[in-house]
Amino acid sequence: MSVPHHKPICQLIKLKPKTVAKYKSLHGGFWLRVSFALEPHYIVGSGCSSHYHPPLDLLTATFKYTGDYEKDMQGIAEDKGTQRWWKVTDGMQESLNESATGSGGEVTWWTELEEIFKAELA
Fold first, then answer.
1. Angle at 104 between CA 86 and CA 69, to 5 degrees
2. 46-55 pLDDT per residue, tens
3. Domain 7-98+108-112 is in which class?
């Protein structure tokens, strides 16, 4: 039996400066419905985390993933609770991807970053 390969995902987006406090507050009470939508779509390990860099208004999201990425992202996008969450949070963000219109759109809202180094330490 093989062990599933966990792919680390790191994404980047701009956060509108005037929305930082509200955005942080929303994530302090992260919607349980959205959390439940992530579980069956192979978001694994320690779950998701976000980090904010105020000088450039950049927000990162990181998570470990295993499975069929495109299929699972589509499944998450079809979840009604996730769609409601995106309606609240998308207006607080600015995509770095030209012609992106929002989460769940044809052009990805968050920019996925290339992993260039990884050390698995015991």
1. 115
2. 567 889 999 9
3. alpha beta
